[in-house]
Here is the input.
Amino acid sequence: MFTFERYADDAVVHCKSERQARHVRQAIADRMAEVGLRLHPDKTKIVYCKDGNRRGSYEHTAFTFLGFTFRQRRARNRHGKSFSNFLPAISKDALNKISAAVRSWRLHLRTGHTFKDLARRINPIVAGWMQYYGAFYRSALSPLLQRINAYLMRWIRKKYKRLRGKKKARECWQGITGRYPLMFAHWKWVPSVQWS
Here is the structure.
């Protein structure tokens, strides 16, 4: 017995052993051949779900499915103890794609808009990313959300000449996030700006 997930023409089949995985892969290939189809030679692979308990060494120990990369990651149990588990998080390709979208907004140059205008424009999109990609290992989204904050800080410093200095801009930021902590969807997770 095995479990599987499918979306369109992509599927992930979870097996209990490498032997079972090879058998299932061959059975799927045979069935597809019966209807004039074949498995994609580069995308079809057997992946070992390596974690703290499964420590073997295999060629493939990660895979990507529906914008998530599944691989060995650090996790914490309910007592706060760290351990290694096989978990999904946003894939590098998905992160690059949404990072490019954030860059294309050019938020720091939209000085003709108000902060609320910017929030109305990006909140539905960012909230969607958070809901989908943040369902698993949401800390992998933090650098992207921090980047949005960095663009917003640049916007403040460009729009208001008196706030060009880092100290004054930081004070303004703290005032805004203190008074309106939910103005931007991502402030629920990352309200502050990283300073260099």
In short: The chain has a mean pLDDT of 91. The radius of gyration is 22 Å. DSSP finds five helices and five strands in the chain. Residues 157 and 166 are 8 Å apart (CA to CA).
